[in-house]
Amino acid sequence: MPQKPFKSPTLKELSATLELSQSTVSRVINGEGDKFRIARETQERVLHAAAVHGYSANTVARSLRQKRSYTVGVIVPEISEGYSTAVLGGIEDELLKDGFFYFVVSHRHRLDLLRGYPRMMLTRAVEGIIAVDTAIEDELPIPVVSVSGHQHREGIVNIELDHGQAAHLALSHLKMLGHRRIAFIKGQAFSSDTNRRWRAIVEAAKTLEITIHPQLVVQLQSVDPGPGPGMEVTRQLLQAKRPFTALFAFNDVTAMGAILALREAGLRIPKDISVVGFDDVLAASTYNPPLTTVRQPLRNMGQTAASTLLGLIRDGTQQPQPATITVYPNLVVRKSTAPAPSHLPPMAVATTV
Amino acid sequence: MPQKPFKSPTLKELSATLELSQSTVSRVINGEGDKFRIARETQERVLHAAAVHGYSANTVARSLRQKRSYTVGVIVPEISEGYSTAVLGGIEDELLKDGFFYFVVSHRHRLDLLRGYPRMMLTRAVEGIIAVDTAIEDELPIPVVSVSGHQHREGIVNIELDHGQAAHLALSHLKMLGHRRIAFIKGQAFSSDTNRRWRAIVEAAKTLEITIHPQLVVQLQSVDPGPGPGMEVTRQLLQAKRPFTALFAFNDVTAMGAILALREAGLRIPKDISVVGFDDVLAASTYNPPLTTVRQPLRNMGQTAASTLLGLIRDGTQQPQPATITVYPNLVVRKSTAPAPSHLPPMAVATTV
DNA sequence: CTGAAAGCGCTTACAG
DNA sequence: CTGAAAGCGCTTACAG
Is B4 in contact with A283 (Cβ distance < 8 A)? Predict the structure, then answer.
């Protein structure tokens, strides 16, 4: 037999022991004793007995009755990745202190999961959903807040980075270092951030009078997590033999992959090529060389998402929420960027594996 | 008003529409139509109507009635870390395909959370708990399986790495490369793996006739995630000025910190010092130099934990489960290890920051 | 083969 | 100030 070393009594049992009605006991347990003017003494008896018997209300029954679950769903692309987990950390901070729990699911860009999960979570009676870097297509009867999801649907609150500022920060840093021929790695088509960020880069380049050479722009294809896709695409870039002195990657992991491919071709970082990442994941600072990167306040974005969602759940969606909450990046200058070399570096043919 | 674009009808409503009893509808929805010999035609009508009206059972009500929640709790030390998240990925794989969801909480080594979370999850009616690298003190009325938790309590199934083999793999690799003076960084006292792993190292060293010099053994103190603690302790090691040619770190992140500190002191990796990590987190392969490390099959450990837990939930704890399920490491040789230098490297005084 | 009814454990109008 | 009773939406003996 399974051991049952601890089992909370039910309200009924506790009430019987106390010789009080369930109503009364329920009220004082829920802190409404004073509101219902229940005798101080009675309240103390109840609280004491609850403590002694280790009573805690069955949340399933409570949920059914109140039609509330105190649970939200979080949907992320991938769970084993610096980006999502940093955001998750922030979400946890906020949620748990309000007594909420959360389910996590990762869709790994599989369409069936992407479509199915929101419904499954609804079935699980979540009171709201946080979507991290993933677009939700269905209209849902509960509040949803999106982190970097760029949803334009009414009622969805977006937590978004100021991409204009991000692009400006990175490009002006490179410009100041004397870089003129800058290569770019765009994100995968499925990432909600890709277009938004690219448009911001084009804009910032214009303002800063930096020319973007189309031959120096490549785009991530593979959905694999890790640095593989970044390596791959950087090798292509090298094969085109168009010289450049700096590279702005879609994110840190991609930047790491790019550095690997660049080294493979005999190029030194940052001496020959400067590389700028994006996100500032934990590994960025310990990488060799430590990455210069545009920092997204990931944990803070998670916290903001959670507290916003909690607000929407509490107050309903009626009051017009700002459709997007903007959050600001900053540039962390480390060792992967340096002044542009006076001569363009030789673009060795990548020694493909 | 909050938009309600989609709202499942209740069983009652659906039954009314169909002019059938709730019992019948419930049975066919749950696939027990044949078992109860409900007319094929009736079954089809029900299924069709359910699809048309988008009926899905309210899981809260179902849980209350069945006293099952189809939910498990996962408790990890830290959510934004390679180790836990890899395990989480594996857990998700198994759980979701059986229709289970999971709550995640991270205790961050705070005693109050560590103690409070299992109870909170019980209150949430989870049917089982997976504890990752954390010891559960309370006896719980539900199955718990522990990943690297080294629980000795009856009824708890442990998923554990074969630490003997892990130690042997790492040390024999180092020995073969000619290393004789090897430094060690032990884990923090709170990590369940620390002692187990250390004992295995002592044992393997004996077998391989490697002398462990107590002055070359340091232990992580700080609870901070990231490479900070590893750097810190490596600086101490350097300050003692006892020469060594190799270092075996408690985990990859620590190894990265150690490499940072070693370089800071002018040492080259792997030319002067070889470094071996542990875990093989995603970043290990892209680090510079790519880390030689003892690979733990983290994702697989998560999967095993989940499927074991599901089994326990299904069959009850009665049948004697093996108290521990052993899982095997392998050595991934990359670029952070090399033959020992013929002369002991100079132990520069660390230039502390 | 199908249905009426009880009950899971709470909360909360309603009544006094 | 306190309690009796209804009901949240299901599942499942029990009956026929």
Answer: no
